[in-house]
Amino acid sequence: MNILFVHTNFPGQFGALAQVLAGDGSHRVAAIGSQTARPVPGVRLQRYHFDDVGHAGVHTFARRFDREARRAEQVLYALIALEADGFRPDVIIAHSGWGETLPLKAKCPQARLIVYCEFYYRETGQDVHFDPEFPRLGVDGLTSLRAKNANQLLALIDCDMGLSPTAWQRSTYPPEFQHKIAVIHEGVDAERVRPDHQARFALSNGRVLTRDSQVISFVSRNLEPMRGYHIFMRALPEILQACPGAEVVVVGGDDVSYGDRSPDGRSWKDVFRSEVARSIDPSRVHFVGKLAYQAYLELLQISAAHVYLTYPFVLSWSLVEAMSAGCLVIASDTAPLREVVRHGENGLLVPFFDRRQLSRAVIDALQRPEVYRQLREAARRTAVSAFDRRAVTERLLALVLGQRTPERQGA
After folding, report:
1. Can you give the residue range of the structural domain that contains 231?
2. Span 304-322, pLDDT tens digits
3. Number of domains in the chain
4. What is the DSSP string of 7-30?
5. pTM of the model
6. Which Gene3D superfamilies is this protein grouped with (predicted)?
7. Does an H or E element contain 332, and which?
8. Dihedral of the CA atoms 99, 135, 123, 101 (nearest 10)?
9. From residue 21, how far is each of 44, 46, 168, 394, 404 by CA, in Å?
10. Preceding amide of 336 cis, omega within 30
């Protein structure tokens, strides 16, 4: 069978599945991705070049679709190049978020199309207007938001089935399409991401932190309000005052992954660090930027309290990896976290905007660690039973190879 992956940042969510299919020996596996795509052994990678040249002359409402259409054109050329070399896909697995699905059925009508359905934009009930601290969208902004879904709707019409990582993320899609979408998270490497009581985390100043160091960890791709960075920073003065031995390690970049940039042009990291600068000891709050994976894993393994906050938005891999590492997860009581974290059983949930309750939860976790030992163990069990990559990949294989349908999948 000829199997094609399409993802601008390949392998993205498809890494484990691509590796298994490529290693099977009975399939030919190829991938199409942009210049940011990374190779996977056994997978032929056809890269395309995409420059976001701007939107001169393009209506505001159509800007995203224009960008996606230009990306789709490059995917079409990549498909033609693969076909010229004798590769004609039987199955295509593609992410629906960048426009890359647009030409797939037109060029490859014979192929079974599976699309990854990560998030459908809506005006209410999700990330938009969730946080009253930030400006609301006007009618123009809301119209542009609705237009963002155009390519996803075409993908849902074209696809034979979809995949969403959580039931809540599937629920963001129009009801008339949800029956086509199976709920299967791509999983985490639970064998590698596991508790290690001997783990050590080295800071850039030479200090080494261990499980005895009362470490509070916070991880986000970029430090921004969408992932609750502002709430976390505002909770730190009370936490650090109550726990004089605590150390805070903040992982994340200075850019923006999802939301808007700050009005004054500064990074959100600097905006909220400045806000609390006079109330915290900077020698105890360590901004480490983006970590190499092994260092990130060691941080999770020594963490005494791992804080994960988010607007109602996509679930981060880091949350599941923290549970797999046996962290005490203190998370916001928002979707889709309620689907994974059960308060008082395998973690703690606190209201997103209640920084006092967040502070109290972290303080208690540091002062009475033995009380929460069972929650750590339960978090690990949850990760292994529901998110272990090996088991999850077997389920994905069954879907890709046509052995199961969305209707027979549990949500």
Report:
1. 201-387
2. 999 999 999 999 999 999 9
3. 2
4. -TTTTGGGHHHHHHHHHHSS-EEE
5. 0.94
6. Glycogen Phosphorylase B
7. strand 329-332
8. 10
9. 12, 17, 28, 11, 17
10. yes
